[in-house]
């Protein structure tokens, strides 16, 4: 009996909880003596984790290609890593470790496609995370004590932040906005800034810059001024002084992210000023320090009441194009609405031509099953890049899915979305499949009998989610506020219409879908050709976006020969069947997961429970949506 208890305790003690992510799990007992060269984090990481016996040399070559580019030259006698910057060397080191884990080291020349590869945390000062599904914020403000000029942090917190930085650097992320876009003015208080500095000092050795979301009304709310008008000299001075204070604490501070005049947030519009007035004021304060402003285009409802919500960002920002300072970047969500399971790309990327653009992707699965559904998002992001070429963007931001859960992301497979975001931010030409395979091998096992079927599951998972939630271009039929389950009949007279599901599907006895063509809201006209014409006609509109752009009769014949109603049913059924299949695959793979390193029962079980939940949720989506639409389609209940 005693023996049994002891064994169980040992099992618990070594159970893999997913906290090591995709990173090498075993640290060398003695630092490797095979690694030499330029001092810094790259050297440290390789000494700790490089396990080969081929000597490695790190060369910081200031004359080499600029930025974070690096070269790895591998011969049987020696491996040389060189880069023009310490962060480039660090990326090379992680690439080498990745190759080592994958079992094949070869020569590489690599450079990042985007110079800004950022995570956006939607973390609040009270420890909550907006749209966070993996516990509380990892920034434990209460575990940091300010004492004079010093900040004392608990060792556990320090370790967690370093682990976080390391994970980011290993996939090439080079900046983090640490707080919510719905920003508290307190974020800029002297005390909080000191704590931000303490965080930034832990991130910097990993090549990660710190950025902050700011509340536009801070001069009033925090500074006690009577106004936050961006043209008011006192307000401008307040920002200038605040920015100077920030740079005294953090000379490598990156800049600000701003959500203004959107969903109740303050902004320049409160003083009848434009977004350009607001952004430029901040840009002027940041410019002498080399800082940037990332100004979000996610605005609706303020100046364009009554206009189709998906048109409003272009209506608002296109006339301002050309008026922004050089250090302003417009940050726009991939789709024109709000991170739906499938959206067309945002036409802001077509219409903003003179101002640098950044794309904002959502890693946290607000609208894709949160941390309960296995949904691998790389295929969705690749779909976006196939319409908006990465060359048109100067940066990419991902809304983080990270919290203080042991496994960081809630669902073990949600880690893959963090990983995929970083890998695509470095190289958007990588395929979803390559990334999934890589992640599975690094995170679970290299056994092909596991990797092959699970890669296939991951690749199919996004389309399955679209199918059981909102196929054929349906969108925003989520329950209010939490955005988890279905509510196709959702309508609240006291809510803005553009938060209500019925506004988005427009179902009636004639058909279903939102007419955004030239006969409807005219949103199609915001797109460049060939998309404008293609989306405008039912006959040429891709069927997976049909109900996004058109109100289509229930009896419409789809390419399959089925009527729209039949096709809708087929999609919901397919979505449910797919999740059943994913679950069956996972069950079959149990022995392989468990034998991976002998201690994976916990991860297998946690994924298993979530897949069961996802099966039940997929059925709920199908039942709720088809029951709701059926009477409109003139069909009898089953
Ligand atoms: C969505 C999300 C909000 C978030 C907003 C934004 O609407 O539900 O929680 O604040 O996007 O991106 O600003």
Chain-wise SSE layout:
Elements: H1 2-14, E1 35-37, H2 41-49, E2 56-60, E3 70-74, E4 79-83, H3 86-102, E5 108-110, E6 116-120, E7 144-147, E8 150-153, H4 155-170, E9 175-177, H5 190-203, E10 209-214, H6 218-221, H7 233-249, E11 255-258, H8 275-286, E12 292-296, H9 312-317, E13 328-333, H10 348-351, E14 357-362, H11 378-387, E15 395-399, H12 415-426, H13 432-443, H14 448-469, H15 501-505, E16 511-512, H16 531-536, H17 546-549, E17 552-553, H18 564-588, H19 590-597, H20 601-633
Parallel strand pairs: 1-2, 2-4, 6-9, 6-15, 9-10, 10-11, 11-12, 12-13, 13-14, 14-15
Antiparallel strand pairs: 3-4, 3-5, 7-8, 16-17
The protein binds alpha-D-glucopyranuronic acid.
Alpha-D-glucopyranuronic acid binds at residues 130-131, 181-182, 259, 263, 298, 338, 366.
Could you please describe the fold and organization of this structure?
With 638 residues, the chain is α/β, with parallel strands linked by helices. The protein has three domains: 35-110, Chitobiase/beta-hexosaminidase domain 2-like (Chitobiase, domain 2, 2-Layer Sandwich); 116-430, Glycosidases (TIM Barrel), CATH 3.20.20.80; 471-514 and 551-633, Alpha-Beta Complex (Alpha-d-glucuronidase, C-terminal Domain). It is 39% helix and 11% strand. It is built from 20 helices and 17 strands. The chain has an eight-stranded parallel β-barrel with strand order 6-9-10-11-12-13-14-15. α7 (233-249) packs across α8 (275-286), α13 crosses α14 and α18 packs antiparallel against α20 (601-633). It is globular. The N and C termini lie far apart (56 Å). Residues 1-13 have low confidence and may be disordered. Bound molecules: alpha-D-glucopyranuronic acid. Residues 130-131, 181-182, 259, 263, 298, 338, 366 line the site of alpha-D-glucopyranuronic acid (GCU).
